[in-house]
Amino acid sequence: MDIKEVYRELYPLTIVRDRYNGTYSAGKFTAWNLYPAGVPEEIFWDDTSAMIFFDNIRRGKSTFVYGVGKTPDEAAMDLYMKIR
């Protein structure tokens, strides 16, 4: 699928440069199928909060789904593949 189509399909979409450079999220960029106000604040907080937040997602203790990648396009494509 063309990346332009992915961006259209994922509306709303917010892509964030990861504060911790992928240490907890596993990517330099994270993509969220949310408006900016809906992106979880924990990803911007301290190390411990970010670590716990992403760990809870991996363990299935959270319903958030996000995409990751080295670039914004990779993060968007990863999110698209996870939710489609």
Key features of this structure:
84 residues; alpha+beta; globular
Description:
By secondary structure, the chain is an alpha+beta fold. It has one domain. It has helices spanning 3-9, 47-58, 72-83; strands at 14-17, 29-32, 66-69. Strands 1-2-3 form a three-stranded antiparallel β-sheet. The two termini are 12 Å apart. The model has no long low-confidence stretch (mean pLDDT 97).
Describe the secondary structure blueprint for this structure:
Blueprint: H1 3-9, E1 14-17, E2 29-32, H2 47-58, E3 66-69, H3 72-83
Antiparallel strand pairs: 1-2, 2-3
Helix pairs in contact: 1-3
Share of helix among residues? 25-40%
Domains (count): 1
Structural Rg: 12 Å
Distance between the termini: 12 Å
Q: Tally of extended strands?
A: 3
On the 0 to 100 scale, the average pLDDT is: 97
Multimeric status of the protein: single chain
The residue ranges in which pLDDT falls below 50 over 5 or more consecutive positions are none
- Shape type: globular
Largest sheet at a glance? 3 strands, antiparallel
Q: Give the helix tally.
A: 3
* Strand arrangement in the largest pleated sheet: 1-2-3
Structural class: alpha+beta
What is the strand content?
Answer: 5-15%
- Can you write the helix and strand succession as a string? HEEHEH
What is this structure, in a nutshell?
The chain has helices at 3-9, 47-58, 72-83, and strands spanning 14-17, 29-32, 66-69.
